[in-house]
Amino acid sequence: MSFFLEITDLDLGDTPVENIFINDYMPMANGTYVKVYLLGYKYAKDNDDKLCVNNESISRHLNIPLSDVLKAWDFWEQKGIIIKHKKEDADEYDYKVEFLNLKQLYIKNNYMLKTQANPAKNTKVYTCTVEDLVESNKIPSIQEMFLSIDYIVRRQLVPNEKRKILEWLYNYNMNPEVIVKAFFYAVEKKGKRNINYVEGIVRNWYDMGITNLDALEKHTKTQDERFYNYDRIMKSLGFSSRIPSEAEIKVIDKWFDEWKFTMEVILKACENTKKTANPSVNYIDGILSKWRKKGITTVEDVIEKDKPQVAVQSKNSTNNSVRTNKIKTRFHTAEQRTARYTSEELEEIARKRRG
Question: Scanning 111, 180, 244, 281, which has the fewest C-beta atoms within 10 Å of its C-beta?
Fold first, then answer.
Protein backbone atom coordinates (compact mmCIF):
# COMPACT_ATOMS: atom_id res chain seq x y z
CA MET A 1 0.00 0.00 0.00
CA SER A 2 1.24 3.52 -0.78
CA PHE A 3 0.00 7.10 -0.72
CA PHE A 4 0.59 10.01 -3.10
CA LEU A 5 -0.86 13.44 -3.83
CA GLU A 6 -2.86 14.47 -6.87
CA ILE A 7 -1.38 17.36 -8.82
CA THR A 8 -3.97 20.09 -9.35
CA ASP A 9 -4.08 23.30 -11.37
CA LEU A 10 -6.03 25.25 -8.74
CA ASP A 11 -4.40 26.15 -5.40
CA LEU A 12 -6.89 26.87 -2.60
CA GLY A 13 -4.25 27.04 0.12
CA ASP A 14 -2.58 24.56 2.45
CA THR A 15 -2.03 24.27 6.17
CA PRO A 16 1.21 22.38 6.92
CA VAL A 17 0.97 20.26 10.07
CA GLU A 18 4.13 19.10 11.81
CA ASN A 19 4.75 15.36 11.60
CA ILE A 20 5.52 15.28 15.31
CA PHE A 21 1.88 16.13 16.01
CA ILE A 22 0.63 13.39 13.67
CA ASN A 23 3.07 10.73 14.90
CA ASP A 24 3.29 11.47 18.62
CA TYR A 25 0.37 13.59 19.81
CA MET A 26 -2.59 12.72 17.58
CA PRO A 27 -2.73 9.05 18.77
CA MET A 28 -3.12 10.32 22.35
CA ALA A 29 -6.32 12.27 21.70
CA ASN A 30 -9.85 11.52 20.61
CA GLY A 31 -11.13 12.78 17.27
CA THR A 32 -12.87 15.85 18.67
CA TYR A 33 -9.74 17.16 20.36
CA VAL A 34 -7.76 16.64 17.16
CA LYS A 35 -10.34 18.55 15.10
CA VAL A 36 -10.27 21.50 17.52
CA TYR A 37 -6.48 21.61 17.43
CA LEU A 38 -6.28 21.46 13.62
CA LEU A 39 -8.95 24.12 13.06
CA GLY A 40 -7.32 26.47 15.57
CA TYR A 41 -3.93 25.74 14.02
CA LYS A 42 -5.31 26.70 10.60
CA TYR A 43 -6.60 30.01 11.96
CA ALA A 44 -3.18 30.66 13.51
CA LYS A 45 -1.48 29.95 10.16
CA ASP A 46 -3.91 32.21 8.30
CA ASN A 47 -3.07 35.09 10.67
CA ASP A 48 -6.03 37.11 9.37
CA ASP A 49 -6.79 40.09 11.64
CA LYS A 50 -10.13 40.63 9.90
CA LEU A 51 -11.30 37.18 10.89
CA CYS A 52 -13.18 37.06 14.20
CA VAL A 53 -12.59 33.67 15.80
CA ASN A 54 -13.45 32.44 19.28
CA ASN A 55 -14.43 29.22 21.01
CA GLU A 56 -18.09 29.76 20.13
CA SER A 57 -17.34 30.07 16.40
CA ILE A 58 -15.16 26.95 16.53
CA SER A 59 -18.03 25.13 18.24
CA ARG A 60 -20.44 26.16 15.47
CA HIS A 61 -17.98 25.39 12.69
CA LEU A 62 -17.31 21.86 13.96
CA ASN A 63 -20.90 21.31 15.10
CA ILE A 64 -19.81 20.23 18.58
CA PRO A 65 -20.73 21.47 22.08
CA LEU A 66 -18.77 24.45 23.42
CA SER A 67 -17.76 22.34 26.42
CA ASP A 68 -15.90 19.96 24.08
CA VAL A 69 -13.93 22.86 22.61
CA LEU A 70 -12.90 24.01 26.08
CA LYS A 71 -11.95 20.48 27.13
CA ALA A 72 -9.85 20.16 23.98
CA TRP A 73 -7.78 23.25 24.81
CA ASP A 74 -7.35 22.03 28.39
CA PHE A 75 -6.17 18.68 27.07
CA TRP A 76 -3.59 20.14 24.68
CA GLU A 77 -2.39 22.54 27.36
CA GLN A 78 -1.78 19.56 29.66
CA LYS A 79 0.22 17.92 26.86
CA GLY A 80 2.35 21.06 26.74
CA ILE A 81 1.91 21.91 23.06
CA ILE A 82 -0.24 25.05 23.49
CA ILE A 83 -0.34 27.95 25.95
CA LYS A 84 -3.55 29.76 26.88
CA HIS A 85 -3.06 33.53 27.34
CA LYS A 86 -5.96 34.93 29.33
CA LYS A 87 -6.90 38.60 29.14
CA GLU A 88 -7.22 40.74 32.23
CA ASP A 89 -10.79 41.44 33.40
CA ALA A 90 -12.13 39.15 30.68
CA ASP A 91 -14.28 36.04 30.69
CA GLU A 92 -12.32 32.98 31.88
CA TYR A 93 -13.12 31.30 28.55
CA ASP A 94 -11.93 34.29 26.52
CA TYR A 95 -8.23 33.69 25.86
CA LYS A 96 -5.67 33.52 23.10
CA VAL A 97 -4.14 30.17 22.16
CA GLU A 98 -0.45 30.02 21.34
CA PHE A 99 0.64 26.95 19.35
CA LEU A 100 4.15 25.92 20.38
CA ASN A 101 6.68 24.84 17.77
CA LEU A 102 6.78 21.06 18.13
CA LYS A 103 10.22 20.72 16.55
CA GLN A 104 11.66 23.07 19.13
CA LEU A 105 9.73 21.23 21.84
CA TYR A 106 11.16 17.92 20.65
CA ILE A 107 14.70 19.31 20.91
CA LYS A 108 14.03 20.51 24.44
CA ASN A 109 12.60 17.13 25.40
CA ASN A 110 15.58 15.21 24.06
CA TYR A 111 18.56 17.49 24.65
CA MET A 112 17.44 19.56 27.65
CA LEU A 113 16.12 16.63 29.65
CA LYS A 114 13.44 17.41 32.20
CA THR A 115 13.34 15.18 35.27
CA GLN A 116 11.48 15.28 38.52
CA ALA A 117 14.77 14.84 40.38
CA ASN A 118 16.17 18.19 39.23
CA PRO A 119 13.88 21.04 40.35
CA ALA A 120 16.62 23.55 39.54
CA LYS A 121 15.56 23.37 35.92
CA ASN A 122 12.14 24.69 36.96
CA THR A 123 10.40 22.31 34.60
CA LYS A 124 6.68 21.70 34.67
CA VAL A 125 5.85 18.12 35.65
CA TYR A 126 2.42 16.78 34.81
CA THR A 127 0.45 14.99 37.52
CA CYS A 128 -2.51 12.91 36.36
CA THR A 129 -5.80 13.55 38.12
CA VAL A 130 -8.78 11.24 38.51
CA GLU A 131 -10.65 13.37 35.96
CA ASP A 132 -7.79 12.94 33.48
CA LEU A 133 -7.92 9.17 33.95
CA VAL A 134 -11.67 9.11 33.27
CA GLU A 135 -11.22 11.22 30.12
CA SER A 136 -8.28 9.15 28.87
CA ASN A 137 -10.32 5.95 29.06
CA LYS A 138 -12.49 7.38 26.28
CA ILE A 139 -9.53 7.51 23.90
CA PRO A 140 -9.21 4.29 21.81
CA SER A 141 -5.39 4.28 21.70
CA ILE A 142 -5.18 4.66 25.50
CA GLN A 143 -7.77 1.92 26.01
CA GLU A 144 -5.79 -0.39 23.76
CA MET A 145 -2.59 0.43 25.63
CA PHE A 146 -4.11 -0.47 29.01
CA LEU A 147 -5.61 -3.72 27.65
CA SER A 148 -2.25 -4.73 26.18
CA ILE A 149 -0.47 -4.06 29.47
CA ASP A 150 -3.12 -6.04 31.38
CA TYR A 151 -2.40 -9.00 29.12
CA ILE A 152 1.38 -8.69 29.51
CA VAL A 153 1.38 -8.51 33.32
CA ARG A 154 -1.44 -11.11 33.53
CA ARG A 155 -3.65 -8.90 35.70
CA GLN A 156 -5.67 -5.70 35.54
CA LEU A 157 -3.93 -2.44 36.32
CA VAL A 158 -5.23 -0.52 39.33
CA PRO A 159 -6.22 3.15 38.89
CA ASN A 160 -3.07 4.53 40.52
CA GLU A 161 -0.92 2.52 38.13
CA LYS A 162 -2.90 3.81 35.16
CA ARG A 163 -2.45 7.39 36.36
CA LYS A 164 1.30 6.88 36.65
CA ILE A 165 1.46 5.47 33.13
CA LEU A 166 -0.46 8.46 31.78
CA GLU A 167 2.09 10.70 33.48
CA TRP A 168 4.85 8.87 31.58
CA LEU A 169 3.10 9.64 28.30
CA TYR A 170 3.33 13.35 29.01
CA ASN A 171 6.48 13.76 31.11
CA TYR A 172 8.56 11.51 28.84
CA ASN A 173 6.73 12.42 25.63
CA MET A 174 6.17 8.72 24.88
CA ASN A 175 3.89 7.00 22.39
CA PRO A 176 1.41 4.50 23.92
CA GLU A 177 2.96 1.75 21.76
CA VAL A 178 6.39 2.41 23.30
CA ILE A 179 4.95 2.11 26.82
CA VAL A 180 3.51 -1.29 25.86
CA LYS A 181 6.91 -2.36 24.52
CA ALA A 182 8.54 -1.31 27.81
CA PHE A 183 6.20 -3.60 29.78
CA PHE A 184 6.78 -6.43 27.32
CA TYR A 185 10.56 -6.00 27.59
CA ALA A 186 10.43 -5.91 31.40
CA VAL A 187 8.26 -9.01 31.75
CA GLU A 188 9.54 -11.25 28.95
CA LYS A 189 13.21 -10.25 28.92
CA LYS A 190 13.87 -9.34 32.54
CA GLY A 191 11.09 -11.22 34.33
CA LYS A 192 9.97 -8.05 36.16
CA ARG A 193 6.36 -6.95 36.61
CA ASN A 194 6.95 -4.09 39.02
CA ILE A 195 5.70 -0.80 37.58
CA ASN A 196 8.62 1.14 39.07
CA TYR A 197 11.02 -1.15 37.21
CA VAL A 198 9.14 -0.43 33.97
CA GLU A 199 9.38 3.29 34.64
CA GLY A 200 13.15 2.88 34.86
CA ILE A 201 13.14 1.36 31.37
CA VAL A 202 10.95 4.19 30.06
CA ARG A 203 13.26 6.80 31.63
CA ASN A 204 16.34 5.17 30.12
CA TRP A 205 14.75 5.09 26.68
CA TYR A 206 13.76 8.72 27.08
CA ASP A 207 17.34 9.67 28.00
CA MET A 208 18.49 7.97 24.79
CA GLY A 209 15.92 9.87 22.70
CA ILE A 210 13.68 6.82 22.22
CA THR A 211 10.07 8.07 22.21
CA ASN A 212 8.53 6.31 19.18
CA LEU A 213 8.55 2.86 17.59
CA ASP A 214 11.06 3.72 14.85
CA ALA A 215 13.66 4.88 17.35
CA LEU A 216 12.99 1.83 19.55
CA GLU A 217 13.42 -0.54 16.61
CA LYS A 218 16.80 0.96 15.73
CA HIS A 219 17.91 0.62 19.34
CA THR A 220 16.78 -2.98 19.84
CA LYS A 221 18.31 -3.98 16.52
CA THR A 222 21.76 -3.15 17.85
CA GLN A 223 21.31 -3.80 21.58
CA ASP A 224 18.89 -6.72 21.90
CA GLU A 225 18.77 -8.99 18.88
CA ARG A 226 16.17 -11.46 20.19
CA PHE A 227 13.74 -8.71 21.21
CA TYR A 228 14.20 -7.19 17.76
CA ASN A 229 13.56 -10.58 16.15
CA TYR A 230 10.19 -10.92 17.89
CA ASP A 231 9.12 -7.55 16.50
CA ARG A 232 10.36 -8.32 13.00
CA ILE A 233 8.59 -11.68 12.81
CA MET A 234 5.30 -10.24 14.05
CA LYS A 235 5.55 -7.44 11.47
CA SER A 236 6.15 -9.95 8.67
CA LEU A 237 2.94 -11.71 9.75
CA GLY A 238 1.04 -8.44 9.48
CA PHE A 239 0.91 -7.69 13.22
CA SER A 240 2.94 -4.48 13.34
CA SER A 241 1.62 -3.30 16.71
CA ARG A 242 0.82 -6.61 18.46
CA ILE A 243 3.32 -8.21 20.77
CA PRO A 244 3.74 -12.01 20.72
CA SER A 245 2.02 -14.06 23.41
CA GLU A 246 3.94 -16.24 25.86
CA ALA A 247 3.12 -19.35 23.80
CA GLU A 248 4.22 -17.63 20.57
CA ILE A 249 7.52 -16.60 22.17
CA LYS A 250 8.25 -20.23 23.08
CA VAL A 251 7.59 -21.31 19.50
CA ILE A 252 9.79 -18.55 18.04
CA ASP A 253 12.59 -19.33 20.51
CA LYS A 254 12.42 -22.97 19.38
CA TRP A 255 13.06 -21.92 15.76
CA PHE A 256 16.28 -20.17 16.76
CA ASP A 257 17.57 -22.22 19.71
CA GLU A 258 16.49 -25.80 18.94
CA TRP A 259 15.98 -25.90 15.18
CA LYS A 260 18.85 -23.43 14.48
CA PHE A 261 17.02 -21.55 11.73
CA THR A 262 18.33 -18.14 10.68
CA MET A 263 16.17 -15.03 10.53
CA GLU A 264 16.49 -15.10 6.73
CA VAL A 265 14.92 -18.58 6.51
CA ILE A 266 12.17 -17.71 9.01
CA LEU A 267 11.22 -14.60 7.05
CA LYS A 268 11.20 -16.74 3.89
CA ALA A 269 8.66 -19.00 5.59
CA CYS A 270 6.61 -15.96 6.56
CA GLU A 271 6.23 -15.14 2.87
CA ASN A 272 3.90 -18.15 2.66
CA THR A 273 1.27 -16.26 4.66
CA LYS A 274 -0.07 -15.06 1.30
CA LYS A 275 -1.49 -18.57 0.90
CA THR A 276 -3.67 -18.36 4.01
CA ALA A 277 -6.34 -15.97 5.23
CA ASN A 278 -5.27 -16.43 8.88
CA PRO A 279 -1.49 -16.02 9.21
CA SER A 280 -0.12 -17.06 12.58
CA VAL A 281 3.01 -18.23 14.35
CA ASN A 282 1.62 -21.79 14.41
CA TYR A 283 1.13 -21.69 10.63
CA ILE A 284 4.78 -20.74 10.16
CA ASP A 285 5.78 -23.40 12.68
CA GLY A 286 4.19 -26.03 10.44
CA ILE A 287 6.15 -24.78 7.42
CA LEU A 288 9.46 -24.73 9.30
CA SER A 289 8.79 -28.20 10.73
CA LYS A 290 8.38 -29.54 7.18
CA TRP A 291 11.56 -27.79 6.06
CA ARG A 292 13.48 -29.20 9.02
CA LYS A 293 12.51 -32.75 8.02
CA LYS A 294 13.75 -32.05 4.50
CA GLY A 295 17.08 -30.82 5.83
CA ILE A 296 16.49 -27.23 4.72
CA THR A 297 18.78 -24.74 6.46
CA THR A 298 19.20 -21.92 3.94
CA VAL A 299 17.06 -19.94 1.53
CA GLU A 300 18.85 -21.70 -1.34
CA ASP A 301 17.76 -25.05 0.16
CA VAL A 302 14.16 -23.85 0.09
CA ILE A 303 14.39 -23.27 -3.66
CA GLU A 304 16.05 -26.64 -4.29
CA LYS A 305 14.33 -28.99 -1.82
CA ASP A 306 10.85 -27.49 -1.46
CA LYS A 307 9.72 -27.58 -5.08
CA PRO A 308 5.97 -27.85 -5.71
CA GLN A 309 4.76 -31.46 -5.46
CA VAL A 310 2.54 -31.05 -8.52
CA ALA A 311 5.53 -30.57 -10.79
CA VAL A 312 7.15 -33.76 -9.47
CA GLN A 313 4.00 -35.78 -10.04
CA SER A 314 3.66 -34.40 -13.55
CA LYS A 315 7.24 -35.39 -14.33
CA ASN A 316 6.66 -38.91 -12.96
CA SER A 317 3.49 -39.21 -15.01
CA THR A 318 5.41 -38.27 -18.15
CA ASN A 319 8.11 -40.86 -17.43
CA ASN A 320 5.50 -43.55 -16.84
CA SER A 321 3.86 -42.64 -20.14
CA VAL A 322 7.15 -42.99 -21.98
CA ARG A 323 7.85 -46.34 -20.37
CA THR A 324 4.33 -47.52 -21.26
CA ASN A 325 4.87 -46.64 -24.93
CA LYS A 326 8.06 -48.68 -25.02
CA ILE A 327 6.46 -51.88 -23.66
CA LYS A 328 5.14 -54.33 -26.31
CA THR A 329 3.02 -57.46 -25.75
CA ARG A 330 2.94 -60.75 -27.69
CA PHE A 331 0.13 -59.23 -29.73
CA HIS A 332 2.45 -56.46 -30.94
CA THR A 333 5.27 -58.89 -31.83
CA ALA A 334 3.12 -61.57 -33.53
CA GLU A 335 3.14 -61.56 -37.37
CA GLN A 336 -0.27 -60.64 -38.83
CA ARG A 337 -1.72 -62.80 -41.70
CA THR A 338 -2.32 -59.80 -43.91
CA ALA A 339 1.35 -59.01 -43.84
CA ARG A 340 1.99 -61.78 -46.48
CA TYR A 341 -0.10 -60.02 -49.25
CA THR A 342 0.39 -56.87 -51.21
CA SER A 343 -2.34 -54.24 -51.37
CA GLU A 344 -3.31 -55.35 -54.94
CA GLU A 345 -3.63 -58.99 -53.87
CA LEU A 346 -5.80 -58.02 -50.92
CA GLU A 347 -8.07 -56.00 -53.18
CA GLU A 348 -8.44 -59.02 -55.58
CA ILE A 349 -9.36 -61.36 -52.68
CA ALA A 350 -11.99 -58.93 -51.42
CA ARG A 351 -13.54 -58.58 -54.91
CA LYS A 352 -13.84 -62.38 -55.32
CA ARG A 353 -15.56 -62.68 -51.91
CA ARG A 354 -18.09 -60.01 -52.84
CA GLY A 355 -18.81 -61.75 -56.17
Answer: 111
